[in-house]
Structure formats: structure tokens, C-alpha cells
Design a protein that fits this description.
two-stranded antiparallel ribbon, two-stranded antiparallel sheet, Herpes Virus-1
Length: about 650
């Protein structure tokens, strides 16, 4: 039988047949980019462990065939020697013969010629192999069929000599022939990402598996290999990897509750059944425009609020927040259309600016810089550092232009210039400015307005000097009230209250919070300084009711306007306090320029229960210095009385 004197390697080199082993060891083209090496890498990335074991056995059998053939041709010239097998470029361990369960047994002659050892990662062998003891000549090798229990790897051919290729072109490889789907026979070439290697040793198009997913699960509650006569069942994990976990969970929910139900999936991962509400055809959107009939029906059927995170979403298209006044299809058209940056209205062709006055005002305040991503800045002009981009293609950390401002809850963050707080949260600039201008609600000074609505940290704006200056002023006022409150607790002996000194209690080691929650302070209308107005009583608070700020006057200002009021020899009139004219409590209100009210009596007066019209004998009687809330002797209720200096308790004894 004639054989070629030389072979052409994949690198294009013509190699004598007797030197093929040495060339294959040192050929980097074969080890890095040959079709065989490429096929090996892709099989390792896309195949199961069992398939890789079978592939390694086939490579070992092919190697033994080539080795025996070379030894046979060299036998007449010199005694045959056992050649150490060159390390294969496949970094996988060789199966132990016992683990193969009898599969792939070689003949006794091959076992003697073969040195079985684990296959190591390929390294070029620079020194010649060490000689070993001579062996008897090996008779000509007959072709060996693959073991019956091992199925040849699909899409590959046996190694064979090839004709000399034309210069500049390589010979066709097994990969060029392509891989085929076992269900439809479609050839995918080397597109391994388009097929799925199943544990049943079948190669199947992914589009077959994804397309039949719902039908298979509706009918059999499982997914089988699409190749006929194969009963292999895919695991739940494999199915989720193919179709996506969200789609798998949605189908499971539909199978559980039935096709007639609407399933809402929130961005937090919770899926719930959405019950249709009554359709309100007179409903209007935020701008006062009445819903269309289709939009009203869509609103009643698909809008839902997540019970876990309170996000309002659409159960049909999963958009959050819900697109009020529009169906899903209308909203997608709206998103793709050119619209006003601030109000969101669609712009006429050729127009770049909305004509609404408020949009023009916001345009004048918004930053004119362009971010590195190419989008316009969403911050306020003049800031030291621009906030992060809110465009949906760049948004990170959960913030995007459609997310509602947590102060107004009526517009997205992209509808107006924004500021970034020191805690990282984003709010509308005009919402923060308006909140700071309105300050606290009601007569009692509180500081909820000055904190972040989401994390309750102080709402400092480090990049916006205008808002930062205002916030620092409120922080200074807070520190002043806390200092006065802690001192008052010590004066009145409440700094040892069990709620402060008991470990695990609500105010343990936190007298500052105890003072702010228990004591009431008001801002004087004349001097604008905070002053003590009694202890807090939740039942007496009426923060939402209108009040006259001019009636809030501190004792120091009252003392200056009332001749004859006793002064403290040490502190003057700054810390003078008054009792309520109608009961035994500290005064918080100074009305009509001559009457002091506590919070409780002031609330009764405003509610129509006029305590100022009661005779002295109808007013509450003081129980005496020992049981009096003021812990002192004072004139009968119905008369104005200055308690004295709160700093030194220099109480007046001469009525």
C-alpha cells in the first residue's frame, strides 16, 4: 500500500512523514488556532463532562493508531522503540480504565506499547525523549474500530492525509462542516451558542427548546428532548437557563392561577395576582386631562401597587411607575416620540422647546453642561459637581428619569432640575427649596422637613451653596433647641428618667432625642429665638390647624413689654417663664398682648370652649406646691404670673 512521503500541517508546512511527531509538538499554529484545537476549546466550554470524556477517548485511540503506524514503517530500518506519547493540547485528565466500565479496551499489544499517565497541559518538549529498552518489532497495525459503547463525536472526521493546499489557504477542517440539530437537521456551522448539548448526547437548536417551552409545560409539566425516540427530560435549572428565570416563573404562576388571571411582576421580584378594579371613565391624569375609554379600562385592569415595596407598576408591560392615561402601546409610542424635557408633552415637528411658562423657568435653572455619556445634565446651574445621569441607558443605583421625586410624588426626577443630597438620594430642586421655605408645620418647632424623605438623614446639599446655607441655619437652630432641652431635663430632674437610663429602653443614653420628643419649643415672633412652651402631649397637638404666629412671643420679649415683671439678677429677662393664666402649666402662647395660654387651654379656646370667659371659681384649682405640676406656690388661676428664671429658679415669693 502506498503512503505519502510527507504531510501538510495546518500551518502550511510540508512535513516528512517520519518527522510528523516532532513537528506537531512544536507547531504553535496547530496548538493555538488549528481546527482541532479550536474544536477542543469550544467543546470544553459547551459540552458536559460525559461528552468530554468520550471525546478524550477518541483522541487517545487516534493517537495510538498514528503511533503504531509510524513504528511499523520504521521497523525494517531499526528495532522499534516505544515512543513516549507527546502531550496532547487538551488539558483534561485521562479516565482510569476501571472507571470506563470496560468500554474502549485496547488490544493487549496496544497496552504494552502505551504508557498510561494523566495528560498534562501542553508544553513544548525541547529535549529529545529518553531512550527505553528495545521492544520486539510490532506487526503492521490493522485499523481499529471505535469501541461499540462509545458513540463517535458528531461533526468530526477521522484524521487523514490531505493534499497540498494552495499557498495562502488552509485545508478544510471538521469545524467547517458544521454541527447539525438532531431534531430538524439544520446546520449551524461553528455557532455553538445557537445549539444546546443535552446530557442525552443530542445536539439541538436552542430555538426548538425555547419555542416548545410553554407547550411542553402546559401539556406535561416538564420539557423533553425534541429528538424523536428520545425520552430525556431537562432539569428545571436547564430550562430556566434557556428561557430565562422571569419567563419561567411567569408561566408557573399562570399555570397555578389559570390563564384568566392577570399576574403583576414588580421590579423587586415579587409576583402577585392583580384583581381588576371598577372602571372609572371620569378619571383624569396629573395634568387634568380625562382618560380615554381604552386608558380607563387599562388602568382598572393592569395598574397595581406592590405590597412589598409600594411601587406602582403595570402588570402588562412591567413599566414602573404606571403610565397613567395611556395604554401600553400608546406609552411605547410616547417614549419613542420627541417630547418636552420637563413636562413630557409631545413636541410638534421641528420644535425643541415647550411653550409652557413653568418649563421655560425650569430651562433657565437647569445646568447647561453635557455629561461624559453625551446626555444633558439634570442638575442645577452653578453647582460644583453635576449629579449622575438619569437617562434610562445610563441610570444606576435605582435612580432614573422616570422615578418619582419622594417629596412631591407627582413628577419624575427628569421633569425638573435635581439636587443630590449628602446621603446620595436625588430630589427636585424646587421641591427642596419650597420645603425649606415652608419650614415646620404648626406652631411647634420640628425638623422633619429638613431630613431626607427616604433615609431621614439631614438633607444637606454639598454641591448647591444656596440650599446648603439655609440647611446649615436650620441645623444650628436644632442644636440650640437640643442644648436647651437637655439643660431643662437636668433642671427638672428628668435626666434620670427610666426611659433614658434603662438599657434597651427607647431613649437609652440618648437624652437629646428624649428632650426633642417630650419638650415643646416655639419660635418667638419678635426675636425669632426658640423658647420653651411646655411638655408635649400628643392629645393636645393640633399641628394642622391654622394659627396666628404673632401670638407666639417668648417670655423675655413679654417681660420687656410688661413693666414691673420681675427680672433675674443674674440672667435678666432672657430666661423668664410664665405660667398659663387658666391652669397650672407652662405658657406657650401669648395672645392679645396680655394673656398667656398653655397648649391645652389654647386648643380649647380655638375650639370654641372659651376658657377666657370662665370665672376664677370655675377654673381648675391648684392642688398645692407639693402636687402642683409647676412644683411651686403661685397666685390662683385666672391671674398672670411670671414663674421666674428657668436657669436659676429664682422664684418670686411676694405676690
Amino acid at each position: 500500500m502506498s503512503q505519502p512521503a510527507a504531510l501538510y500541517c495546518y500551518c502550511g508546512t510540508r512535513v516528512p512523514f517520519t518527522n510528523i511527531t516532532e513537528h506537531l509538538i512544536h507547531c504553535t499554529v496547530r496548538t493555538d488556532s488549528s481546527p482541532l484545537a479550536t474544536l477542543s476549546r469550544r467543546l470544553k466550554e459547551n459540552s458536559t463532562l460525559e461528552q468530554l470524556k468520550l471525546y478524550l477517548q477518541e483522541l487517545q485511540a487516534e493517537f495510538n493508531i498514528v503511533q503504531s503506524y509510524i513504528q511499523t514503517k520504521e521497523a525494517p530500518a531499526k528495532p522499534a522503540v516505544a515512543v513516549r506519547p507527546a502531550p496532547l493540547p487538551v488539558p483534561l485528565p485521562v479516565l482510569d480504565r476501571q472507571e470506563q466500565g470496560g468500554r474502549g479496551r485496547l488490544r493487549e499489544e496496544e497496552k504494552k506499547a502505551e504508557v498510561v499517565r494523566p495528560v498534562e497541559p501542553f508544553r513544548p518538549v525541547l529535549e529529545p525523549p529518553k531512550p527505553i529498552e528495545p521492544m520486539r518489532p510490532i506487526e503492521p497495525m490493522r485499523p481499529i474500530e471505535p469501541p461499540k459503547s462509545i458513540e463517535p463525536l458528531r461533526g468530526t472526521d477521522q484524521l487523514r492525509p490531505v493534499e497540498a493546499p494552495q499557498r495562502g489557504r488552509r485545508s478544510p477542517s471538521p469545524v467547517d462542516a458544521g454541527i447539525k440539530c438532531g431534531a430538524c437537521g439544520k446546520s449551524w456551522g461553528d455557532a455553538f451558542s445557537e445549539v444546546q448539548f443535552l446530557d442525552c448526547n443530542h445536539i439541538v437548536c436552542k430555538e426548538h427548546l425555547v419555542g416548545s417551552f410553554e407547550e411542553e409545560y402546559r401539556r406535561n409539566q416538564q420539557m423533553k428532548c425534541p429528538v424523536r425516540s428520545c425520552s430525556f427530560v431537562l432539569s428545571v435549572g436547564e430550562v430556566k437557563e434557556l428561557v430565562g428565570e422571569q419567563r419561567f416563573d411567569d408561566l408557573m404562576m399562570k399555570l397555578l392561577v389559570g390563564d384568566g388571571e392577570v399576574i403583576g411582576s414588580c421590579t423587586c421580584g415579587l409576583s402577585i395576582t392583580v384583581e381588576s378594579a371598577r372602571v372609572d371613565y371620569n378619571q383624569k391624569d396629573q395634568s387634568g386631562v380625562k382618560f380615554s375609554r381604552e386608558a380607563a379600562e387599562h388602568f382598572a385592569k393592569y395598574r397595581f401597587r406592590c405590597p412589598k415595596c409600594a411601587t406602582i407598576s403595570c402588570a402588562k408591560c412591567q413599566e414602573a411607575p404606571y403610565h397613567e392615561g395611556q395604554t401600553c402601546e400608546q406609552f411605547q409610542v410616547f417614549k419613542a416620540a420627541k417630547k418636552c424635557r420637563f413636562c413630557g408633552d409631545k413636541l410638534p415637528n421641528g420644535k425643541d422647546l415647550c411653550i409652557k411658562p413653568e418649563c421655560g423657568e425650569r430651562l433657565g435653572r437647569v445646568c447647561k453642561k453635557q455629561l461624559r455619556c453625551g446626555h444633558s445634565c439634570y442638575g442645577v446651574t452653578g453647582e460644583a459637581l453635576c449629579p449622575p445621569c438619569l437617562h434610562e441607558t445610563c441610570a444606576r443605583d435605582g435612580h432614573n428619569e422616570f422615578e418619582y421625586c419622594t417629596i412631591c410624588y407627582t413628577e419624575g426626577l427628569g421633569n425638573a432640575p435635581i439636587v443630590q443630597l449628602s446621603c446620595g438620594h436625588l430630589l427636585h430642586y424646587h421641591c427642596v427649596a419650597t420645603t425649606l421655605a415652608n419650614r415646620w408645620v404648626g406652631p411647634r418647632v420640628t425638623f422633619t422637613f429638613a431630613t431626607c424623605p427616604q433615609c431621614k438623614e439631614w438633607a444637606f446639599t454639598p454641591n448647591n451653596r444656596e440650599l446648603l446655607t439655609k440647611m446649615q441655619a436650620f441645623k444650628a437652630l436644632y442644636d440650640e433647641i437640643v442644648d436647651k432641652g437637655v439643660k431643662r431635663l437636668k433642671f427638672e430632674g428628668e435626666d434620670r428618667d427610666p426611659r433614658i437610663v434603662t438599657e434597651g429602653a427607647a431613649y437609652y443614653n440618648n437624652p437629646q432625642k428624649f428632650a426633642m420628643d417630650r419638650l415643646c419649643y416655639y419660635e418667638c415672633f419678635k426675636c425669632h429665638k426658640p423658647y420653651f412652651g411646655g411638655k408635649k402631649d400628643c392629645a393636645q397637638q393640633d399641628a394642622g390647624k391654622k394659627y396666628d404666629p404673632s401670638e407666639l412671643v417668648c417670655p423675655a420679649c413679654v417681660a420687656e413689654s410688661m413693666p414691673g415683671t420681675a427680672n433675674c439678677q443674674k440672667h435678666g429677662t432672657e430666661f423668664i417663664e410664665f405660667k398659663c393664666k387658666f391652669c397650672c402649666d407652662h405658657a406657650a402662647w401669648f395672645c392679645w398682648g396680655n394673656t398667656h395660654f398653655c397648649e391645652k387651654c389654647h386648643t380649647r379656646q380655638n375650639a370654641g370652649d372659651y376658657v377666657s370667659r370662665l370665672a376664677k371659681d370655675k377654673l381648675p384649682r391648684c392642688p398645692g406646691p407639693r402636687n402642683c405640676p409647676l412644683k411651686m406656690q403661685h397666685p390662683p388661676n385666672g391671674e398672670e404670673f411670671a414663674i421666674g428664671c428657668s436657669m436659676c429658679r429664682n422664684v418670686i415669693s411676694d405676690f
